[in-house]
């Protein structure tokens, strides 16, 4: 059964698009930071800081379960999405945690990011123009890159948590 | 953030001795570049050959360095790895910089049309 309503992270709720088990999301784990790993899937929970994001990306790239599927597109989109969480949603929350689940399903890498930070104001940003080079922009590229490379973007907010899901299709 | 610089004539080659230019190191990168740019010649070439990963924060930092130059100076890039080249291409910021296929060719004098 999969009720068609906004994602919740209660024990009785079905997995959102990424197919991860939401019952375990942020559930106490014996190895709190090591992450749960199954064949083709990794889950990792870490503090909202740039070095922890880098560590997660390096772990994912090196994980044999995702070998060759966590390519440079996946690394970039995940980095941009996680940078947003660290710099905006969790900007004043150094104690906040992020949980990332990556899974290879149906010829695509599905990614789910859950964080305890502030709600995304205005919801998921739509596709916008790339900043103009002649303006010498120092930012505003993050969502452009995400929209350019990711598919099936979905943002939900429930129980004081943000959930961003997307897929990276198999390389053409 | 480890940077190695070498100056020959009008070119200062700055090699980024890191695999990642990302949000974790952009402040360090900008600070380190600021130190090197003091008294730098007209052409500053960033050797990107060792940078395997660049995110939008790193891209913003490179543009910030470009903005900090005086009018007689230019920032150029050399040896972009495939993932880094993709970021410049997708954001169209590759139009902002002369890009050299190799560091060797970057040392050669540029013919300026002006």
Describe the protein in words:
Chain B: This is Anti-sigma factor antagonist. The complex is a heterodimer of chains A (172) and B (114). With 172 residues, chain A is an alpha+beta fold. Chain A has helices spanning 50-62, 72-89, 142-149, and strands at 37-38, 41-47, 97-105, 108-115, 151-158, 161-169. Chain A has a single domain (36-169), classed as 2-Layer Sandwich (Heat Shock Protein 90). Mean pLDDT of chain A is 82; it is low at 1-24 and 27-34. Chain B is of the alpha/beta class and 114 residues long. Chain B has one domain (3-104): Transcription Regulator spoIIAA (2-Layer Sandwich), CATH 3.30.750. Chain B is built from 4 helices and 7 strands. Chain B has helices spanning 26-37, 56-68, 82-91, 103-107; strands at 3-8, 11-16, 20-21, 43-47, 53-54, 74-78, 99-100. In chain B, α1 (26-37) runs parallel beside α2. The chains are: A alpha+beta (172), B alpha/beta (114). Chains A and B meet through α1, α2 and α3 of A and α2 and α3 of B.
Span of the ends, CA to CA of chain B: 36 Å
The rounded distance between the terminal residues' Cα atoms of chain A is: 34 Å
Q: What is the count of DSSP helices of chain B, taking H or I runs of 4+ residues?
A: 4
Mean pLDDT of chain A: 82
Helix fraction of chain B, binned, reads 25-40%
Q: How would you characterize the largest beta sheet of chain A? A: 6 strands, antiparallel
Oligomer description: heterodimer
Low-confidence stretches of chain B: none
> What form of chain A results from the Cα inertia axes?
globular
Runs of chain A in which pLDDT lies below 50 for 5 or more consecutive residues are 1-24, 27-34
- CATH topology type of chain B: Transcription Regulator spoIIAA
Q: How many runs of DSSP E, i.e. beta strands of chain A? A: 6
C-alpha-based Rg of chain A, rounded: 16 Å
Judged by helices, strands and strand pairing, the structural class of chain A is: alpha+beta
Overall tally of structural domains of chain A? 1
Would you list the SSEs of chain A in sequence order as H and E? EEHHEEHEE
Order of helices and strands of chain B: EEEHEEHEHEH
Corresponding CATH architecture of chain A:
2-Layer Sandwich
Protein name (chain B): Anti-sigma factor antagonist
InterPro entries (chain B): Anti-sigma_ant (IPR003658), STAS_dom (IPR002645), STAS_dom_sf (IPR036513)
GO molecular function (chain B): anti-sigma factor antagonist activity
Family (chain B): Belongs to the anti-sigma-factor antagonist family.
């Amino acid at each position: 059964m999969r009720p068609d309503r906004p994602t919740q992270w209660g024990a009785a709720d079905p997995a959102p698009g990424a197919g991860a088990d939401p019952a375990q999301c942020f559930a106490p784990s014996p190895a709190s930071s090591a992450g749960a790993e199954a064949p083709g899937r990794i889950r990792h929970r870490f503090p909202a800081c740039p070095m922890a994001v880098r560590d997660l990306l390096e772990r994912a790239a090196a994980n044999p379960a995702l070998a060759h599927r966590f390519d440079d597109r996946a690394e970039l989109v995940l980095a941009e999405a996680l940078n947003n969480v660290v710099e905006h949603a969790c900007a004043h929350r150094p104690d906040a945690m992020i949980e990332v689940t990556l899974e290879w399903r149906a010829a695509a890498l599905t990614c789910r990011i859950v964080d305890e930070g502030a709600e995304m104001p205005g919801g998921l940003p739509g596709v916008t123009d790339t900043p103009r080079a002649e303006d010498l922009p120092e930012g505003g590229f993050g969502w452009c890159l995400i929209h350019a490379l990711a598919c099936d973007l979905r943002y939900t907010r429930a129980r004081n948590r943000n959930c961003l899901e997307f897929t990276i299709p198999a390389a053409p | 953030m480890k940077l190695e610089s070498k100056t020959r004539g009008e070119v200062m080659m700055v090699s980024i001795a890191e695999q990642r230019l990302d949000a974790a190191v952009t402040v360090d990168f900008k600070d380190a570049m600021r130190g090197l740019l003091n008294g730098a010649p007209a052409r500053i070439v960033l050797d990107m050959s060792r940078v395997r990963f660049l995110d939008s924060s790193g891209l913003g930092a490179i543009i910030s360095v470009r903005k900090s130059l005086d009018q007689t100076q230019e920032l150029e890039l050399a040896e972009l790895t495939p993932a880094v080249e993709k970021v410049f291409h997708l954001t169209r910021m590759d139009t902002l910089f002369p890009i050299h296929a190799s560091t060797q060719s970057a040392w050669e004098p540029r013919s300026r049309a002006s």
